[in-house]
Amino acid sequence: MAGHSKWANIQHRKGRQDAKRGKVFTKLIKEVTVAAKMGGGDLSANPRLRLAVDKAKAESMPKDNIENAIKRGTGQLEGVVYEECRYEGYGIAGAAVMVDCLTDNKVRTVADVRHAFSKYGGNMGTDGSVAFQFKHCGTLLFAPGTSEDALMDAALEAGAEDVVTNEDGSIEVITGPWEFTAVKEALETAGFKAEFGEVTMKALNETVLTGDDGIRMQKLLDALDALDDVQEVYTSAAIED
Length: 241
What we know:
By secondary structure, the chain is α+β, with helices and mostly antiparallel strands. It has helices at residues 6-18, 21-39, 47-58, 63-74, 106-119, 148-158, 180-189, 211-225; strands at residues 83-90, 96-103, 123-124, 134-142, 162-165, 171-175, 196-203, 207-209, 230-235, 237-239. The protein has a domain at 6-16 and 133-203: YebC, transcriptional regulation domain (Alpha-Beta Plaits). The longest helix is centred in the first third of the chain and has 19 residues, at 21-39. The chain is flat and about 50 Å long.
């Protein structure tokens, strides 16, 4: 058993994400472009691109936008050249934070990220300072009341790495990062539809924050996420309402 407030935390995150739809297309287009540049434009041979396209489709991105982003990545169309970079640091009460960026100007990006950490009570660390506290994986969260035994059988048969039942009754299915889509589709075929799913850097241990600490931590996370070059913000903080 783990994650006593997992269900509430995920609902909180989803609500905040839904309020930031304006940046979603920009982030997705960048990810599709870079994925195509790194591994080619063939979805069947490029799992990162397939995942990026699946995410774009889930957000109802027009087909032309997706195809043009792939063409920019493979050099068929001209476009901005983005570089990947990751910054690490600490938030309130030492909670670990990792910030993944796609940028055309690393000098600008690192300055913006460092400023956000400093302004909102965090500290930017060195490369590798917190990365060991996270695991790159896919995670699918199922509502309390889902049959644990049936879901576990279906998940393991589909190729999942682990199934974790949280204290609040929700169930997490953990997959390899590139097996996420296949496991998700297999579970849906078996009649199990996740309430939330993503490929993420999952914290191996959580730092629970409440009250003012939680509010301060959320401000830091929001400030980082609002930066134009930031794609994803990962943290070990579990913020309680």
